[in-house]
Amino acid sequence: MNNILTLTFAAVLALTFTACDSGSRPQPQKGGARQVSDAERVYVAPGKLDDYYAFLSGGQSGSVFVYGIPSCRFLKEIPIFEPRAGLGYANNPGSESYRRLHETGPMWGDTHHPVLSQTEGRYDGRWLWINDKANGRVARIDLRTFETAVIKRVPNIQGAHGLAACLPSCKYVFVNGELEHDLADSTDATKYHSLIAFLDGESLETRFEVAFVGNADIASSGKDGRYVFSTMYNSENAVTSEGMIERDRDAVVAIDVPLAEKALADGKFTRVKGVPVIKPEDVPGLLTLIPVPKNPHGCNVTPDGKYVLASGKLSPTVTIIDAHTLKVVAEPEVGLGPLHTTFDGRGNAYTSLFIDSQIVKWNIEKAIKGDPTYIVDRVDVHYNVGHTKAAGADSSYPSGDWLISLNKLSKGMYLPVGPAMPESQELIDISGEKMHLVAAFASLPEPHDAVFMPRQTLADKVVQTYEPAPAAVKLGEEKIVRNGNKVDVYMTCIRSKFVPEQFEVHPNDEVTIHLTNVETIRDMTHGFALSDHGINIAVDPGQTQVVSFNAGPRGTYWYYCTWFCSALHLEMRGRMLVKAPNEPLSDSIAPPPPTQAKAQDTDKKASVSYE
Ligand code: CUK
Ligand code: CUA
Ligand code: CA
Predict the structure, then answer these.
(1) Does the beta carbon of 561 sit less than 6 angstroms from any atom of ligand 2?
(2) What is the count of structural domains for the chain?
(3) What is the pLDDT of residues 504-552, one digit of tens each?
(4) First and final CA of the chain: distance in angstroms?
(5) What gap in Å lies between CA 29 and CA 12, rounded to an integer?
(6) What is the atom index within ligand 1 of the atom nearest the CA of 340?
(7) Beta-bridge partners for 426
């Protein structure tokens, strides 16, 4: 079956290439009608809205990418762990977003697993959490504004990888330490542990941690508040890749959350770097290791909460574990390199096969009963799929219509853009018995995982403008405040003017701009870029941004709006006048006379004088 599919695909490719190479227009192919209907499935007319937001982790871009589904249109990048100067995020040491990121660790991160908050088994549209695998951090994004609200370093963790919310309450999110180390910071490998950290869902403060020998890779929560699950591929606690594949079976880790909370209340923990760390040997029943083959990866609880599925990675199987008794109930073969599994809510599982470059659809109950017809369908993807996720599959109510395949290689799928090729995602229609791949789209590196959010869930949640903060500068109350060499400029902006349009400082003064965008309608973002100072901020309607910098040497420095806002966008600019140290400074915010400088005589040839 597999080979026939591959052959057919190769034949289609060969046909396509022949047509293109001849320089003539491609001839209509047999699949023409099908391709037209595929195009219709993903076509969203200009001005019409997509059915879903898809939040894709940005991987080494340190951000989250937002796409519309089914159109596959790129909508937004939410910067989190990496500065994004164009969006005015964490790009200047004198900004709040820079300070907040910098105090939690390096100015770069590696985002893998976006997680949506839920209420009663449904995505509730409040928050999206995401991990930074490289630097042991977790962030929370506020879905009212699509901006990073909180970033926290998780103490004692290295390789913060798997991330999930403890269901059903989301009172915790838990994050897995993939990389083992000694909690007392020695380099002695015989003392290596790994841990799972439980963070407050809102503040992301670490409430407690469970430490154990081995590691924890991918995470998933049971639905009833009892167990959370993680896959462990290094049960060997080895430090070499050969060592990590010695055993035929590793494990799924189940942690009893109420038991952990009781241990915490009973004081059965030691504090490490300020955090209560619970050891399983002190709390019988806290941690259960369920043997599964071999270097398992994905860990996914079924929407009904009955089973947890561990994808085999080095074994062609998915292990089905009863999520309440923690007993293995079946271990069906699905194909080569199973990594992650997702669900349609109709009893089917969809597993990504990295080596086979396929998504395989299979029926869970049939696999448990040993019915040999449990494999329903396979579809080829391009190429080497990592995560796959169906709409709603992390909630209790999957919608069963779309599935995304997040592929590691795109090979010849797109126009060549150099030795490195675009990252590739594919959209698969799973509404029928057979899967049907309908679209592909490229992205920046490198989405690992994705979650779908129905448009309706956010319809009345995404705000139009910011609520003015207490520190907002009000229209008419702009001012310049001096304190020695510190200068605070309280500035407003609205189409198409900054107030003040000029302010005066001395060389090397420490300048702080408090800029409020006093627009009251959505989308009227203004920017503030200051020439030759590396400063760019973006200020959304109602928002106040603060940025500090050194004024630098004597001269005139224009600041200007970086977001094209109106017909007078180019005129939306002002001057920082850095005067000589002995020159007096004005604190006036009154506008300078309209034609202060000598007007250019447009009839004469322009001349410049350097006197
Ligand atoms: S994971 Cu992070 S290394 Cu989500 Cu399969 Cu790829
Ligand atoms: Cu304001 Cu352009
Ligand atoms: Ca192993």
Answers:
(1) yes
(2) 1
(3) 999 999 999 999 999 999 999 999 999 999 999 999 999 999 999 999 9
(4) 83
(5) 9
(6) 5
(7) 405, 440
Contact 399, 389 (CB under 8 A): no
| Residue 141 β-bridge partners | 128, 148
The DSSP result for 532-592, as a single string, is TTTEEEEE-TT-EEEEEEE--SSEEEEEE--S--STTTTT-EEEEEE--TTS------SPP
CATH number, domain at 532?
Answer: 2.60.40.420
For residue 234, being part of any structural domain is answered with no
Does the residue 529 lie in any domain? yes
The answer, yes or no, to whether residue 13 has pLDDT greater than 50, is: no
Q: Which domain holds residue 535?
A: 479-578
CA of 559 from ligand 2 middle (Å) equals 11
Q: What are phi and psi of 218, to 5 degrees?
A: -100, 150
Lookup: tokens for 468: 């003015």
Residue 93 banded pLDDT, cuts 50, 70, 90: very high
The CB of 112 under 6 Å from ligand 1? The reply is yes
**Is the CB–ligand 2 distance for residue 573 below 6 Å?**
no
Closest CA to 233 of 252, 219, 220: 252
Record the tokens describing residue 184, joined without a space. 């007392």
275-278 and 206-212 strand pairing: parallel
Is 525 within the bounds of a domain?
yes
- Which residues does 317 contact at the CB level (< 8 Å), separation at least 6? 293, 331, 332, 333, 334, 338
Q: How confident is the model over 300-357, as pLDDT tens digits?
A: 999 999 999 999 999 999 999 999 999 999 999 999 999 999 999 999 999 999 999 9
Query: How would you label 170-194 residue by residue, b for 16+ Cβ within 10 Å and e otherwise?
Result: bbbbbbbbbbbbebeeeeeeeebbb
Q: What is the dihedral of CA 482, 487, 490, 492, to 10 degrees?
A: 140
pLDDT tens-digit map of 141-155: 999 999 999 999 999
Q: Is the CB of 560 within 6 Å of ligand 2?
A: no
Rg of the chain over CA atoms, in angstroms? 28
| Domain contains 508 | yes
Question: Cα 335 to chain center, whole Å?
Answer: 29
Nearest ligand 1 atom, CA 57 = 4
Which string of DSSP letters, residue by residue, matches 229-286? Answer: EEEES-TT--SSHHHHT--SEEEEEEEEHHHHHHHHHTT--EEETTEEEE-GGGSTTS
Which amino acid, residue 460? D
Distance 315 CA to ligand 3 centre (A): 11
Residues 198 and 176: their CA atoms lie apart, in Å, by 9
